[in-house]
Amino acid sequence: MKTSLLLLPALLLAATPLLAQERQRVSPRETVTATVAGEEFSVVYGRPYTKDPKSGEKRTIWGGLVPYGKVWRMGADEATLFTTSQPIEMGGTTIPAGTYSLFLLPAEGGDAKLIINKQTGQWGTKYDEAQDLARVDLKRTKLEKSLDQFTIAIEETAADGVLKISWEDTEYSTAFTPKK
Fold first, then answer.
1. What is the pLDDT of residues 19-36, one digit of tens each?
2. Confidence (pLDDT) at 125
């Protein structure tokens, strides 16, 4: 019994490098913050490039790296986090103040939904549909200039905000309103 108790920490130490390799980031992290109608918002996400980090080859983004009809983690490495200091209205749904994971569900015809998920802290493509708070229709716009790196922005309009998701030649967006 004593030997197996001593063996357990040794096994855990031996496995630690494997876990670290599995969770090694391949894309730079970005934190975007904005103030909209006096309220604070932030997004933390991985910013993959159009080129494959291993081969340098250009990748097909929409319908390739970001598959149609499947949930995509909206960035690289850890799930993208969205934090709001106040409740907001987005796509007809009230989102309470807090931190959420964001996912994207693109369709082959160009439509897409933003998924706001209550689970946070997951790595990679760990996604639990039962934790979805809302699915919001996104507006699609064709970009004039192609973006090599995945980008998320929060912009303030008159009294509202706009969440923008851009990559390659496509931008998806949705408006939101802070609730007082």
1. 434 568 879 999 999 999
2. 73
Query: Residue holding tokens 């340098």?
Result: 56
Give the contacts of 180 (CB within 8 A, at least 6 positions apart). 86
> DSSP states of 129-145 as a string?
GGGEEEEEE-EEEEEEE
Q: What are the angstrom distances between the C-alpha of 84 and each of 143, 154, 178?
A: 27, 12, 9
pTM assigned to the model? 0.84
Composition of the chain by helix, strand, coil, percent to 5? 15, 50, 35
- The type of residue at 137 is D
Q: Report CA dihedral (133, 136, 142, 144) to the nearest 10 degrees.
A: -50
Q: pLDDT (tens digit, 9 = 90+) per residue, 128-165? A: 999 999 999 999 999 999 999 999 999 998 879 999 99
- 128 φ, ψ to 5°? -120, 105
Do 61 and 51 touch, CB atoms closer than 8 A?
no
Contact assessment for residue 74 and residue 104, using Cβ atoms and an 8 Å cutoff: yes
Backbone angles phi, psi at 9, to 5 degrees: -60, -35
Neighbours of 71 (CB within 10 A): 17
DSSP SS3 for 96: coil
49 forms bridges with which residues in the sheet? Answer: 149
